[in-house]
Amino acid sequence: MDATQLVKGVLDLAVLAVVAREDGYGYDVVRRLRAAGLEDVGDASVYGTLRRLYSAGALTSYVVPSDEGPHRKYYGINAQGRDALANQGKTWAAFSQTMAGLLDEAGVKA
């Protein structure tokens, strides 16, 4: 199974979870996702997801000046984003539980 397709399906949820823990700028979010085990996540996919979630009203943003390069645009989660995270998290938990049951019945060990 191609893990990149799985990541695309849950990237909103993963980005919301990372930003809910701590505000971050684009590459910081990419780095944290990779450190969490999503090594196949693409930079452009994460940047696009951050912009889309911001446009949808799930994230806030602010700019932090940098002495060592360009200013960084940080993203933070807001109430709408926390609601989306909770709802998508419940959906993911139910889906993963269903898949674990199906795999267990088929004799596949994770």
Task: Report on the architecture of this protein.
The protein has 110 residues and is α+β, with helices and mostly antiparallel strands. It has one domain: Arc Repressor Mutant, subunit A (Orthogonal Bundle). 63% of the residues lie in helices and 13% in strands. It is built from four helices and three strands; from the N terminus they run αβααββα. The chain has helices spanning 3-21, 26-35, 43-55, 79-105, and strands at 24-25, 59-64, 72-77. The protein has a three-stranded antiparallel sheet. A hairpin with a 7-residue loop joins β2 (59-64) and β3 (72-77). The longest helix is centred in the last third of the chain and has 27 residues, at 79-105. InterPro entries: Metal_resp_DNA-bind_regulator, Tscrpt_reg_PadR_N, WH-like_DNA-bd_sf, WH_DNA-bd_sf. It comes from Knoellia subterranea KCTC 19937. Residues 15-86 form the Transcription regulator PadR N-terminal domain. This is PadR family transcriptional regulator.
